[in-house]
Structures are given as C-alpha cells and as structure tokens.
Design brief:
Elements (H helix, E strand, L loop, with lengths): L1 H20 L14 H4 L3 H15 L2 H4 L2 H24 L6 E6 L2 E6 L19 E2 H12 L17 H13 L4 H4 L7 H11 L2 H16 L15 E11 L7 E2 L1 H4 L3 E10 L2 E8 L9 H6 L9 E3 L9 H7 L3 E2 L6 H8 E6 L2 E6 L5 H6 L1 H13 L4 H9 L9 H20 L1 H25 L12 H36 L2 H8 L9 E2 L15 H9 L2
Parallel strand pairs: 3-12, 4-8, 8-9
Antiparallel strand pairs: 1-2, 4-6, 5-6, 6-7, 10-11
C-alpha cells in the first residue's frame, strides 16, 4: 500500500508539471507559468487603441485587411503548387523524388552541402599582426571607443586604450584580468578597477553595433549579399561549458559529460554577428528567434532569416511574416515536413498535391483580433518576447485563442516549403547563410581556446554576459579588420580593372584568424604607431 502511495504522489507531481508546462494551469506572479493572456496587452487598451498600435508596428501585412492578406497568400500558394507539380512531373526539378512505400508517396529532397568559410589562404600572405594592434586599428577606423563610457560619466582614463584592450582580451579569451596582469604593463588592481568602471554589457553591445554598422559601409560588404539589396541572416547556438553554478547553467551529458554549461545564440548577417543571447540549455532555440531579430540595435536588419530545425516551432513562420521578415529554415528532414503538410495523389498526367488538412480561412478571419493582440504585445516589449513565444509554442490544440495564428503559420510554412523544394538557389542561400553562422562559431571557439580551455569562468550570469559580449566585440574587430583589408584591395583592383581578382575577392569570407597572434605577452607597444589599412592591404594585392 505504501509503495502505491508513493507512485500516486509521483504521478500527481508529474501531472502538475505537465499541466503547468502545457499552460493548462497558471501560477500568479510567475513570468514563466502565468497564463498567456496575462502577458498580452490589456484587452481594454487593445479594444480602444488597437488600430493605432498596429500602425506603430509599421508592418504591411498587419496593416492589410485580413481578407486581402489571405487572398494574396492563397494566390501565392496556388501558383507555387502548380509550378512544383509541373516541374516534378516533367522531371525538370531533379532535386525532388517521389517514391511509393507501402502504398504511400514519400518525399525525398536532395540537400546541398556546405563549404568551409574560414581562413581563406589569401590571408596567409599577410604579415602576422598582434591582436592588440588589430583592436587599436579598428578603434581608430570606427570610433567605437566613444561608445565605452565611465559608469559615473567621468573623464576617460589617461591609459584608456591600453587598459581597455587588456581587459577586452582577458575577458574574451577567458584569461581573466588576474592572469592578464602578468602579461601586460598594468597591475591587477588597475585592470580590475578599469573593468568595474567601464565594462558593462549595454556599452559593450553598443561598441559592437558601432563596428557592425561600419562594416556595412565598406565597399566589399554589398558583395556578401546572395541577392541584390537582400540581407540574409541566420541564427544558431553554440554551447560553452561553465565552471560555476549560476541561475542559467544546466547539466548536459550530451554536450559536457558530467559538466554544465550554456548556449550562446548569435544572429549573424553577412558574416557579421549583430545580436547575441545567452540561453539556458533547457530552453528551446526557436523561442529566442523573434527576440534576437526584434532587439537587434544595429543598422543591419535582415530581410530573410535562416535557422536549422531547432529554430522552428508552431508560430515562427507566422510571427516573422507578420512583422515583415521571411523565415527560411533548413529542416534536417524536409521530406518528413512535406509528408505532414501535403497529401499526394496519382493523376493521368502524373500526380497532384494538396494540403493534407485544408487551411481554414474562417478560423483565421474570426480569430485575427487575437493574432493582432499578440503582435502588439510582442512590439510593446513589456514582457520578454521569448516568454510570449514560448507560451504560444507549447500551447495545446485546445487553446482556441491561438487557432488563427496556428492556421496562418501553416499557410506561410506551406508556401515556404513549396518554394524551397522548387528553387535550388533558395536552398543554396539558406545553406550558405547557415555556413556563415558556423564560421563565426569557429572563430569564437578559436578565441575562447587562447587560454587553453573554452569554458566560462564567470562568477555569475552577469559576468558571463559581459565576458561573452567581449568575445563578440573582439570577433567584430577581427571581421572589420579583414573586411577593410579586402575592401581596400577590391577598390584597387576595380581601379586597375583586374576582373579576375575582383571576382575572387567577392567570394572570400572575412572570418579568418590564421594571420593574427593571440598568445604571448601584451606589451602594447604595437598600439602606439599603427599601420594604415591601405598599407596592410598591399600584401593582398601581392598575393
């Protein structure tokens, strides 16, 4: 009897946890387990001022009457469906194969392989450059030092550049200012005081944004676009171990054995990391997709966003579409996603495809006010966007409030999948965007291993955030430095009309570090008299 009592108690706890997670139950004053409706803008405010709030979002799709928006999406879907069927039946589209297994048609979609996007051999012609001088050169060219202010708004330290570079390298490489004091001209107390007064996450983020904006002004930058005037970004996570327990660290036997760690999510656009978020390992990457996009403070704003399968959920297609972005994920198993969405039937001319479950336009129209209220709540930023997205993503079919959003999401997803399997160029762009995100991860791994280990050593979450912000800032410095070298070389080649070299430079990734020196002592003598970018780029011309 006692054993059954224990089982009943355990089952009760499991039931409570399940109902909390699926939002069947709520908890007062809890950001995670409060009902979704409590995270949304007040219903009276929405009813009285909803139209003005929608206009403030400045989204063409949200401003459009829902009947017109649905008609436009329907036409797009039907056009794509006809084209997909025609091209597969005529065997013009060789990347899609339909096979019959157990009386059912199964989709097979050929995926493209990525290529290495780091350390192009052209950089091997450059003289080795110390990382401290690279930071100083980038500061001179971009003026990002102006974004770093004393926390009490006092005048800058007389040795600002040297101390800033020392602390930046110490934090980005996980070395720490204690060890850095043995490798640079400044004492531990000097570095610790400087770090406490100047190193804050918002300031470091502003400095990184300044560099990102300056990269976008370089001549080479426009050639990183896959299509003219279209910025294609990607979001992906990278896992790092942590030595200490913090609020966000979690154990993961898959990633760290018996250790614990965190996941660093990065929004990258044309090789440039424009926003980051440190995420606990028990959170889902897709809950942060909208958050990273909407809180991107740089001038680089993507038109298209790609993720891997981990970046997809029940609502991201709809939410990104309604805010003006195109969501273009790469699924690990595209055929499985097609099987869920479409049914295939044989015809006299080959086959035809239809949605396995038709889109319910009536449901979307009747529930559109709920969808608009969700979008306004995301725009207001009164609650973290990832909290709202998380609650939407894990909601069950019984939540009628989300019917319209889910139906619209299925429609947008169906349109994307048809376009994806029909357009090899789109597949290539998605793969390349994700490759660039992976290249940034390799650069971060190289930076973090300068000290011989890649784990965070921060005392708490705030310190970990600062250290990773330093790592992003250092990576931005490296990417700007390389991009500026390539841009100067490109300008010279264009003036000399060397078309072969011009085409070669356009394809080179600025994510490279083989020509940079991270280790050793940091005497900082190399930041006193800095070479010009133009002189340094002459080595590329001699390649």
């Amino acid at each position: 009897m006692g054993r059954n009592t224990h089982r009943a108690e355990y089952y009760t706890y499991r039931l409570i946890a399940s109902r909390l997670y699926k939002s069947h139950w709520g908890v007062e004053n809890s950001s995670e387990f409060s009902p979704l409706v409590e995270s949304l803008v007040d219903i009276d405010l929405f009813e009285n001022d909803g139209d003005t709030m929608i206009e403030a979002i400045n989204s063409a799709n949200l401003d459009m009457p829902i009947e017109e928006l649905l008609a436009m999406k329907r036409e797009q879907f039907n056009t794509l469906k006809r084209r997909v069927v025609e091209r597969i039946n005529s065997r013009e589209n060789e990347s899609v194969i339909l096979t019959t297994a157990s009386g059912k048609k199964t989709w097979t979609v050929k995926q493209l392989k990525g290529r290495n996007e780091v350390n192009d051999r052209i950089f091997s012609n450059l003289p080795k450059q110390g990382i401290s001088s690279v930071i100083a050169i980038v500061a001179r060219e971009t003026g990002f030092y102006d974004r770093i202010k004393h926390m009490k708004y006092r005048h800058k330290d007389s040795d600002f550049s040297g101390k800033f570079i020392s602390c930046l390298i110490a934090n980005a490489t996980r070395l720490g200012v204690h060890k850095m004091a043995d490798l640079c001209p400044f004492s531990y107390d000097e570095l610790k005081n400087f770090e406490a007064n100047y190193f804050r996450e918002p300031a470091l983020g502003n400095a990184a944004d300044c560099i990102s904006d300056e990269i976008s002004k370089l001549e080479i930058f426009k050639y990183y676009n896959f299509r003219p005037d279209v910025l294609h970004g990607s979001i992906d996570g990278q896992k790092f171990g942590s030595k200490r327990n913090t609020v966000r660290t979690r154990y993961s036997s898959k990633d760290f054995g018996k250790g614990k760690g965190l996941s660093a999510l990065t929004l990258s656009i044309n090789h440039v990391p424009v926003n980051i978020e440190i995420m606990p390992l028990n959170h889902h990457e897709s809950h942060y997709t909208f958050d990273l996009l909407y809180n991107n403070a740089s001038q680089l704003q993507p038109d298209v966003l790609s993720t891997d399968t981990h970046g997809t959920n029940k609502c991201n297609f709809a939410l990104l579409d309604l805010f003006g972005w195109t969501f273009a994920p790469r699924y690990k198993d595209v055929g499985s996603e097609l099987d869920k969405l479409f049914s295939v039937s044989e015809t006299e001319n080959g086959f035809s495809i239809e949605l396995a479950k038709p889109i319910d336009d009536k449901k979307i129209i009747e529930g559109w006010k709920h969808t608009q209220r969700i979008c306004i709540s995301l725009h207001q930023k009164e609650v973290r966007q990832y909290e709202i997205v998380k609650k939407i993503s894990r909601s069950t079919e019984s939540d009628r409030m989300l019917d319209a959003l889910r139906e619209y999401d299925r429609l947008v997803k169906a349109i994307y999948l048809l376009e994806y399997i029909d357009d090899d160029n789109l597949k290539r762009y998605v793969q390349k965007a994700l490759n660039r995100g992976e290249a940034y991860h390799q650069l971060q791994r190289a930076i973090s291993k300068v000290n011989g280990q890649s784990n965070f050593r921060g005392q708490g979450d705030r310190e970990i955030d600062i250290w990773y912000s330093c790592a992003r800032l250092l990576a931005n410095c490296i990417i700007f430095y390389n991009s500026a070298l390539l841009s100067n070389a490109l300008t010279r080649f264009e003036r000399e009309k060397k078309e072969l070299y011009i085409e070669m430079l356009k394809k080179i990734s600025p994510v490279a570090w083989g020509h940079l020196v991270f280790n050793g002592e940091y005497s900082l003598d190399d930041i006193i008299k800095l070479p010009s970018i133009l002189d340094l780029s002459l080595n590329i011309l001699n390649a």
